[in-house]
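hey so i finally got around to running both of the ones u sent me last week. sorry it took forever, my laptop kept dying halfway thru and i had to restart like 3 times lol. anyway pasting them below in the order u listed, first the sequence line then the structure token line for each. didnt double check formatting much so if smth looks off just lmk and ill redo it

first one:
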Amino acid sequence: MDKQVAEQIIRSFVRATMNVYNLLTNTTLSPGGIEKASSSLFKTSGVIILLSFSGAFAGRTILSTTEEMMEFIHECIVGEKPAQNDLLVTASEFGNMLVGHAVTDINNHFRGSNVRPSPPNSYIGENLTFFNFKMSAYNVVFKSQHGDLKLNIALKEGTK
């Protein structure tokens, strides 16, 4: 994938992450730098959201954070403490909003790219390992007063 295209897609996901978080919580996330992943493996724990997209550009993002941070997001949306299953529903909705914002930005920037999201998948677990098969991956760590949020973006060429 062209480096400038990859950078634009990554920026779209970074902006979407910050905007959706701010919209839902009325607080801010501060992104760290974008780093190329040094391995095909991405290891994480906590609440994990998998978001895929396809079209002229295809890829997958993994968003991970702590249960405490997802509880905070849930409380901001619903106004009450969540049950365990509520965290997965909240994570899926957060992911759905995030990928929708990012894909809209990508399609507005690259007219005719017809990038479409897949429904998000959410998990809660410890010591999970994901493999980025034949994709270039990038990592961004966001900081907030309620914890960290990690974004792993893996990109490959898609078809129109």
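and the second one:
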Amino acid sequence: MKVYFQDLTVHSSKRFELIDITWKVEEAVAASGIRNGLCLVYAPHATAAIIANEHESGLLYDLLAKVRELFPEGAGYRHDRIDDNAHAHLASAFLASSRIFPVRDGRLVRGTWQNILLVEADGPRTRRVVVEVLGES
């Protein structure tokens, strides 16, 4: 079995933001040379998450609105006494910091309307996203 790693750099410009990283992940899968296997997309951060959903402006707005509704800033969280970003930690914990996708015939398998999005909940920041592709060449 072959294993390939690539670190992506993603820059956010807002406190809350959804950033489409699909094409960067697809490039990493292609560069891996792996024909069949799995692709892990992982954000090693406690205040960001990875989701898979449609990249449509209305839906992106709705997704961010729901994250803000579920995890509002300044809601009296105990962690805010330390660094005022408990909402972002909660969003990351509940949304998850990784997703796994199949790789078939050298391509990422995803639904027609399914893109890979970094959820920024404590920006603006520069984030690292780890892409690990493993399988057979």
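quick thing i noticed on the 2nd:
The mean pLDDT is 97.
anyway thats it, ttyl
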